[in-house]
Amino acid sequence: MTHRWTPNTWRSKPAQHIPADYPDAGAVARVEGELRALPPLVFAGEARRLKGLLGDVSAGRAFLLQGGDCAESFKEFTADNIRDTFRLILQMAVVLTFAGGKPVVKVGRMAGQFAKPRSSPVETQGDVTLPSYRGDNINGMGFTAEERAPDPERLLKAYHQSSATLNLLRAFAGGGYADLHNIHRWTLGFVEGSPNGGRYRELADKISESLDFMSAIGVTADTHSELHRVEFFTSHEALLLGFEEAMTRVDSTSGDWYDTSAHLLWIGERTRQLDGAHIEYMRGIKNPIGLKVGPTLEPDDLLRLIDALNPGDEAGRLTLYGRFGSDKIAARLPKLMEATRRAGRQVVWAIDPMHGNTLTAANGYKTRPFDRILGEVKSFIEIAQAEGVHPGGVHLEMTGQNVTECLGGARALSEGDLADRYHTHCDPRLNAEQALELAFLVSEKLKAARQSERQAAVG
């Protein structure tokens, strides 16, 4: 891929999962023109900062926590929903930081995660077949021809909702809401209310003791402002390349191109064709980027994708998200990790334990068992250790709301519980309790891994 790149060279490549059935191509061009004139949602300096932090992850000095909605929606856009998911990520990060002994880089699937590739372009109900729902920035969920027709005006609405979401996230991150003591107090409430709270109490008590010690020696939010605020970044799948192109701007300080719709963007499992439009677009932007890596990908093909997306082998540039399924990860991940290690590629290896563990319950609901999600994360950590690779992070579909979409967890949600609060617009998400429980259980695994590393260093 030595040809000259511009933000629109992707248009000469085959494109997967980008709507080609807009009724009015002129309206699409007009909306994309309006988007080009709107302010950036994020800034190049922020994206560079995240790339630096992800460089620490690739070197084994930090851990990535990335999470949020499967697909954001216009209907459920409220300050409370944004706050609750933000708070959940902070709670999980504190638990993972304390147990893992490394700083946690916090990235939300927020402020732009609308569009989703679908396994089928159409949906049939009874005798009626209509285009599939593809995300609120493309079409509507209602099963009518009018709702399912793609509407470019939705791109503008998604931009403005993303802007409002970012505004709120910046206020939460820097305005005192993210104070470390607040976060821990919320977590103590979870421990008290969880059926498995006794298991997590020891870690929670140790965090309390550490905070008390810090206060005793004068390390408080008044003397150290970093205890009062957090760095928080946004991400989404770069699926609708017309939107991403419109948000791609030249950074005045470096002359480089950045996609200003998010700090980090990733390429999905269904759109990672080496000669395709999505690889072509993503290779040219300077943001940190991600690539979903599934069970069908061979080591040589992975290395070719890495060379296309990160030819300079820049630390923090590329995150690989394994998404295999708890029953496939042991057979597929080791040889991929071995390939990147042997080739000396600087990448972040993270795990997406959601997409490979989806099933349909007997009552028709799409769901994911908590035990399989946890099992894939644990296997990821074990395999990374065995391959001499840093287990760099987790990428989760989750919400701060008390939904009933994934089976199991401390509350032992059953198939019969799914109908109670099944609100997702796409795939099932961990609820707040399940996600925080996952953080505690993963922290136990990270702590054990850290102790093994120490023993190996001494021995």
UniProtKB/TrEMBL annotation:
It comes from the Bacteria. The keyword Nucleus does not apply. Keywords: Cadmium, Cobalt, Manganese, Transferase. Its EC number is 2.5.1.54. Mn(2+) binds at C70, H355, E397, D427. The keyword Nucleotidyltransferase does not apply. One of its GO terms (biological process) is aromatic amino acid family biosynthetic process. InterPro entries: Aldolase_TIM, DAHP_synth_2. Binds 1 divalent cation per subunit. The enzyme is active with manganese, cobalt or cadmium ions. It is an enzyme of class 2 (transferase). Phosphoenolpyruvate binds at R109, E269, R270, K292, R323. Its cofactor is Mn(2+); Co(2+); Cd(2+). Transmembrane segments: none annotated. It catalyses: D-erythrose 4-phosphate + phosphoenolpyruvate + H2O = 7-phospho-2-dehydro-3-deoxy-D-arabino-heptonate + phosphate. GO terms for molecular function: 3-deoxy-7-phosphoheptulonate synthase activity. NCBIfam families: DAHP_synth_II. Belongs to the class-II DAHP synthase family. PANTHER family: PHOSPHO-2-DEHYDRO-3-DEOXYHEPTONATE ALDOLASE, PHOSPHO-2-DEHYDRO-3-DEOXYHEPTONATE ALDOLASE 1, 2. This is Phospho-2-dehydro-3-deoxyheptonate aldolase.
